[in-house]
Amino acid sequence: MSIGSTLIYRPSSIVDRLRWAEVFEAEGRIEVELGSGDGGFLAEYAGRHPERSFLGVERLLGRLRKLDRKGRRMGLMNLRLLRIEAAYLVEYLLPAGGVEALHIYFPDPWPKRRHWRRRLIQPSFISAAAHALGAGGRLYFRTDDRGYWAWAQEVCGQCALLRAVETPAELRAVETDFERDFRARGLEIHTLAYERRMAAPCIRDQTSMMGPSGSW
Q1: How far is C-alpha 135 from the geometric centre of its chain's CA atoms?
Q2: Which CATH superfamily is domain 28-190 in?
Q3: C-alpha triplet 27, 193, 28: angle, nearest 5°
C-alpha cells in the first residue's frame, strides 16, 4: 500500500455511521484520538503500532494539515484524520462497539463553574463513548487540571458499562505536545483509564448543564 496525497478523510455523509472499511485501506484494531492538536502523541503512537488503525479527530484545519504532513513524512499508512467536533463524532458517527480505544488528552478544562456545561466530559458523552467501545475497549484521559480530573472520574464512575483500570506503562510513556510543555513547567499530570464491560447500559443524562452529581 502507499500513502496518497492526504491522510485527511472526507466522509460522504456526516449523518451516517462511519464504515471502517471505507476509512482505512487495511482495517486493524481501531483507536481514536479526540482533539489531536499538533499530533505529537498520535504520530508517535501510530508509528509504534503499525498493526493498528488510528483516527485523529481535530476541529482546527491548520492543526489537521500539520498532522497530515507529519504522518505522510513518517509513512503512517495506518493513520487517517477527520475534521469534526469530537462530541458529534462520538454521539452520531462512531459505530457501536467498533473502537478499541478512545484517547482524550488535555481537553479544555473550562475551570469556571458557570462554564462546566461546556466540558467535553459529560454523562451523555461518556454514555455514547462507552457504546462506541467494544467489550474490553478502553477510554484514556489526561489533564493538568485537578478539578477536571475529579469531574471526569465522577462522571465515568457513574457509567455502569465502564470500570476503572490502570493506564499501561507503554502508553504513559508516549507524551502529547501539551504534556511535554506542562511537565517542563513542573505541572502535575492526572490520568484516568476505564474499560468497557458487559453490564446494564448507562442512563443518559437528561441535561449536561448540571454537575456530575446533579447540581451546580
Answers
A1: 17
A2: Vaccinia Virus protein VP39 (3.40.50.150)
A3: 5
Residues of the chain with pLDDT under 70: 1-4, 27, 199-216
Read off the C-alpha cell for 203: 442512563
Q: CB-based burial of residue 103 (10 Å sphere; 0-12 exposed, 13-18 middle, 19+ buried)?
A: buried
Hey, which residues does 32 pair with through a beta bridge?
Answer: 55, 102
Q: Which residues of 143-157 are buried (b: 16+ CB within 10 A; e: fewer)?
A: bbbeebbebbbebbe
pLDDT attached to residue 114:
95
Q: Give the residue among 69, 103, 113, 111 at the shortest CA–CA distance from 175.
A: 103
Rg (CA), the chain: 17
Per-domain boundaries in the chain: 28-190
d(CA 214, CA 216): 7
